[in-house]
Amino acid sequence: MKRLIALILIAASAGTIAACNTVAGAGQDLSAGGHAITNSAEKAK
What we know:
The protein is mostly helical. 96% of the residues lie in helices and 0% in strands. The longest helix is centred in the middle third of the chain and has 43 residues, at 2-44. The model has no long low-confidence stretch (mean pLDDT 79).
């Protein structure tokens, strides 16, 4: 029973870490898109 609980905790931790990396990557992509839009707007002035 202790092994099962340990495996569940490890799996949950791995899922949480992977989700954080995914959210961080999505934030970076959105930021890069915003910078591209800002640069295009500056060039169009």
